[in-house]
Amino acid sequence: MNAIFNRKYIPLFATAAVLIVLYTIASVLYDNFFSILTMTNILSDNAYLGVIAVGMTFVILTGGIDLSVGSVFAFSTILIASMAEKGYSPPLAILLAVFLGLIFGLFQGILIHKFKMQPFLVTLGGMFFARGAAFMVNMESIGISNKFYDWVLDDLNLWINSEAFLPASTIFFLIVFVIGMYVAHLTRFGRSVYAIGGSEDSALLMGLPVGIVKVAVYGICGMCSALGGVLYTFFTGSGNPSNGVGLELDVIASVVIGGTLLSGGVGYVVGTLMGVLIYGTIQCALMFDGRLNSWWLRIAIGVLLLIFILMQRVLTRGSESDS
Amino acid sequence: MKVTDRIMSNRLLWPIMGLVLLFVFNGLYGEGFFKIEIMNGYLYGTTIDIINQGSKVMLLAIGMTLVIATGGIDLSVGSIMAVSGSIGALLVNESDYSFALIVAIALVATVIIGLVNGVLVSYIGLQPFVATLIMMVTARGIALLITNGFIYTFEDEDFVFLGNGHFLMLPFTLTIVLIMTVISIFITRKTAVGVFIEAVGDNERASRFAGINTKVVKMVVYGFSGLCAGIAGLVATSNIKAADTIKLGETMEMDAIFAVVVGGTSLTGGKFNLIGSLIGALLIQTLTTTMYFLGVPPAITAVPKSIVIILVCLLQSEEFRRMIMSVVRRSRA
Amino acid sequence: MNQENVLLRVENVKKEFPGVKALDGVEFSLKAGEIHALMGENGAGKSTLIKVITGVYQRDEGSMKLGDQEVCPESVLEAESYGISTVFQEVNLIRTLSVAENILLGRQPKKYGCLNWKEINAHARRALARLGIYDLDVTKELSHCSMAVQQMVAIARALDIDAKILILDEPTSSLDEKEVEALFQVMRNLRDQGLGIVFVTHFLGQVYQVCDRITVLRNGGYVGDYDIKDLPKLKLISKMLGKEIEDLESIELKGRHREPLTSEEFLVAEDLGRIGAVDPLDLSIKKGEIVGLAGLLGSGRTETARLLFGADSRTSGSTRINNRESRLGSPMDAIRRGIGFCSEDRKGEGIIPNLSVRENIILALQAKRGLLRKIKTSEQIAIAEHYISALKIKTPSPEAAIKNLSGGNQQKVLLARWLAVQPELIILDEPTRGIDVGAKAEIEKLINKLSDDGVAVLFISSELEEVVRVCDRISVLRDRKKIGELIGDEIDEQKIMQIIASEVSEERKSV
Q1: The whole model's pTM is what?
Q2: Which residue intervals of C284-376 are DSSP H helices?
Q3: Which chain B residue has its CA at the smallest distance from C341's CA?
Q4: Is the CB of residue C473 less than 8 Å from the CB of residue C487?
């Protein structure tokens, strides 16, 4: 009984252990790494990543994948910046960006579900499409200077102590994260997501609304990507069509490192949060070190992702031979 | 009747028609599109340019065709191009190796990267897009580490010749493409590799049970794709006489997948068509060139390209065909 | 027939798929409080009929009435709303979720906008209690439960939607005898509660154990509807096959049971085993000998064959081939040592669907020769044509894609693939499954001929009479163990069944 309980949560424990070990090592190596400030920085620097990762968690839980997140993210940053420059109200631009992200995701979902096309292929096409579309909006980076953004950046912060605070984007992320937890574990929709990832055929024969759920998760992911773009504009105060190249790997890595199986059906939103924090810790440690090229982050994440996928394979193989 | 049937059912029909349509469009609207001049004993003109520029996609498409035929995909080809380009440009600048040795080193490196893809897919059992997506990011990281983010330029004659030289009045790149085509056709027709690739792509488990070493087959195709990407990277670097590690080969994987899919090889694996992929590659290069003439920035051409890829895949989708058929039937009734 | 009693009446239902008439005027009726068997050979249309009733497919023609109400369910959900519940062939549950969730998925009770997990678990416990299961931890992940428990969970789910009609599609194929009896007890209880149960199975014995009525289908057509007492076993078989009883006897080849030609062992395996699949066992096959593996489904027959072919890696034991130690680490290895293997899973492990008949035939031979030494096209054609005529494979041309051939002809192509490598041992796992009687007899004749030519044959079939008819020697397996061996004249069905049965009782005593 106990062993069964344990096995189910092994990936989650492994993730937590990796997070703690990484953070401890970095704290030993670098002064001031172990501080509230660093912790809040790790969280707020990656708020945009976290929001997208929550959306991606749902897609991967159904056994799918969404490679378009980085491009949708870039599209939404440049759309908002460009609209703000032309004098539109930022809240309106934000709403439009999120809405377009949702529609785009839903469209991908329809192609995947209705025409049985491979998710990676459809979203790969979506990735190129949205990137091109981002450049169509504007070829260059645009800065955002605007009252609404000043208000968000200055007044919407949650101070923890005299020097550390959580900016609006991080608060947003935490809200999205809690909603994600609620949907995944306490709604029929969420359980259907798990069921489809466990076995789509079974879910269909059990009478679950497979089509709606599958299309919806891509919609959610598209929406989260756009929302991630919104948070990034808060973070950087600008929009850029070449933002987030390769972001899809970072997001997938965060989700998988967080214990969600790429084959679907198993995983936790809370694991994704830990995955994002692991990503943030590595990034932050490289920054503290200062000697290493930022490309080491990508290589490190790639290798870590590989290790976690391998670990999952060993574990799932182990439990298969058990039954 | 029978002849038209055979033409209609030929898998090369659609890419050729697409190519012809683009040519007609260019002939009508692009000035001097078909004009070919002889300068210094070499042929020059837009069509020649398309062949020269398209050589990179053609090279990638050859490797990608075989990968896709095994039911896989290689998203890392663009980054592999960056690796070979960086190695080439670095060594031309920093070492006194002969150019042949430099090419050999660069290509060995890219073949190794391809083989790593192959190991991840066959021995570790990762989904091909996952394995090569990781490699796509990691290989570009490696390329940046090689050059340390520095853009190496060079004037080395041999290296410049690779992408800009002429042979038999035509761009030398065409010769490279022809050699690689001949090699790949020889490998797939004269050895059992071709039928094994198709068998693995069609039903991997059954292939293993028939005694085919499916892992070796996959290693071969990913390694070969690495080789093709490596050559393409050297050509691309030579074209601009510099290795821009960040831009080199960026989104080329899309063009290669486009070429293969349009060329009649199904993304689900199985039967493949190398010539079709080459025509597909020419098609996408013509499209890129046309867009360029129309003043569309290259970054934006991703939009129509991705739409075409999705449309072709839609046409291959059983469900989509059935839907269209039922719509047609309903409108007739 | 008493009109009020009829729950479901299906009349003249037709369903066509591209190129196949899956159902052609089928009738079916189900009364309350009966267990009704739906019988037929593979391809008879049982599965299609069930899918039409449960809304997976929609009928092209005909009527389906629930009481007096004409219905045409568009989905499983709609069928469930009419009280039609199904437990499909492979237990269709979500193995990564808990028992309780599997019972209530899609209908979970809520409280304040959240799922009420406490009530979900309590409800699941009540649903299982109805089947007489009280001690199952409903929060356990389903993948950690035995097949029998999974089956019960599936039934609990099916009943929980207030079902009036319960359809069980091959529920017993992966259960052992004791579990089957437990299932039957549950079925009888449910029948007595007034449920109508449709029972689809290919185990003839089980039909007579539990059913009240039988409907027989053949080739998508309706054969008849009989009370169980009016249709003895032999008659049922003849209805299913569409042959008169005398015909049936005439197809049967006489058993051979002769001494093998030589005493030379081709293969000797000792302690061969794989943890979780086969307990270590000894096995030997002489040249020209036909050895059968008999046992129930899941007894380890296929698993043993796969170990011998190197398809799965062994965890114990050694094999000697022609007196030389051989690891047999992979199929390729086995082929080089002269072993061929025709898998039971024709679609998944046999045919390469889009390749031509010719390519499918030469594939193993080519693999044996290696990547580089390609067989010349002219030689390929000659080989293909030779086997097409020798095995009477019906194909428009050697270049036709194998997926367009019928099941029996695909099977022959696969046999040709292995004959082409001229093996010294050929392992045939269910070579006659799902193919028509004529092709069956031809394959049996071929096996005999191979053995006459000195080829060793390992033969696996779930049809006991076929094993008895074909083999010189039979190893009996049960629960992943080899529990006995019969040679020559000892071989008959009765004895095999006795071995399987007696060991069970002995074990029980010793426990």
Answers
A1: 0.83
A2: 301-309, 331-336, 357-369
A3: B209
A4: yes
